[in-house]
């Protein structure tokens, strides 16, 4: 069975690029364009991995992360933070809240990000 | 130079201010009013010694005038400060806003090149690679601008850790190898053995080393040699890059390291370049407690060096 990745990101361009890149490698991508939808899908779809943007409409990324980790049904799912911010404070908070790792978008090529995702999925 | 600074009208024009908003001009007026009023008041005081009320009234009048001029000077300084703030904010906003779309473009190009969407004919792959390189250039400029705005607003974060400078230099040379090969330049490293580890921010210092090396390679004409030396000097580590490149015009040397400045020789040799690399390198080294300097001879080459203190 193919692994399922929940991608919570409000930018459609990224949704499409990532979807195509990871999709062609055999992953199933579930897309959420805001924090609330993301949280709901995390519970109903039971993904193997969550990619989470920090800046999101309706519910900010850090809140989503906190709620995911508080809920027993979702707390075991690894979360990779994707962000444009190099804001050290936010990243530290995210790691403290239980994020597996973080990726600053501008610093990685698509290939490197896909590799990190694969590694996190084991 | 001195005459230029005395030419107030010209200075005010440079800042885009009218005479009555220009601090230099207002200070001149202020000085003039203070001197003439003091002298006049002295004579009035002597002449009207029996009628102190008049003297007091005149003093009050002159003080009010001085206060008004002082107030407009403060106002115009506020305006200048505001302009500086707006400029910094502008750079920061623009670079942040440009970053996301640039990253998107890069990823889409990555995806296309990878052939995951559809097998791409080789001819098109070449064009895609050109697109990727150009995007990368924009990203580098944007990230340099962000670094500059961080340096200026003192938000420059250093994550210091104990690390080996020699290793960092080796890694940076390896990373620039493709550029060196393409420019037909040989990079040779001679590092003293067993250099001590020290406390610094490897990412930032790596950036400084990269900027210096990149310049040395870029501004060496044809077959060239870039010699990198690393050793211990006094209580610090000493890093030096010597190239046999185009050098810097003597008249340009005093401006080297200033933001956005590019030497005439550099510009002639290579139209590309933001004039930020050395400014950033210098700021990083200085904030790490070190010093960065250079010597250069036009047509013969340049030597750039920096030191960082050994701390544990």
Task: Annotate the secondary structure layout.
The complex is a heterodimer of chains A (122) and B (312).
Chain A: E1 4-8, H1 12-23, E2 28-32, H2 35-45, E3 49-53, H3 61-70, E4 79-83, H4 88-96, E5 101-104, H5 110-121
Parallel strand pairs in A: 1-2, 1-3, 3-4, 4-5
Helix pairs in contact in A: 2-3
Chain B: H1 2-6, H2 8-14, H3 23-47, H4 52-114, H5 122-152, E1 161-163, H6 165-175, H7 177-182, E2 185-191, E3 198-200, H8 202-218, E4 224-233, E5 236-243, H9 264-269, H10 277-287, E6 291-297, E7 301-309
Helix pairs in contact in B: 3-4, 4-5, 5-10, 6-8, 8-10
Structural class of chain B: alpha+beta
Largest sheet descriptor of chain B = 5 strands, mixed
Number of helices of chain A: 5
| Portion of residues within helices of chain B | 55-70%
Quick one: how many beta strands of chain B? 7
Taken as a percent bin, the fraction of beta residues of chain B is: 15-25%
**H/E element order of chain B:** HHHHHEHHEEHEEHHEE
Instruction: Quickly count the helices of chain B.
Output: 10
Please report the first level of CATH classification, the CATH class of chain A.
Alpha Beta
CATH architecture assignment of chain A: 3-Layer(aba) Sandwich
User: Helix/strand-derived class of chain A?
Assistant: alpha/beta
Report how far apart the termini of chain B are: 46 Å
Q: Please tell me what the overall shape of chain A is.
A: globular
Q: Indicate the mean pLDDT of chain A.
A: 88
What share of the residues of chain A does DSSP label as strand, in percent?
15-25%
In total, the number of strands of chain A is: 5
Residue windows where pLDDT falls under 50 for at least 5 positions of chain B: none
In the CATH hierarchy, what is the superfamily of chain A? Answer: Response regulator
Which architecture of the largest domain in chain B would the CATH scheme give at its second level? Orthogonal Bundle
Domain count of chain A, please report it. 1
Q: What about the largest sheet of chain A? A: 5 strands, parallel
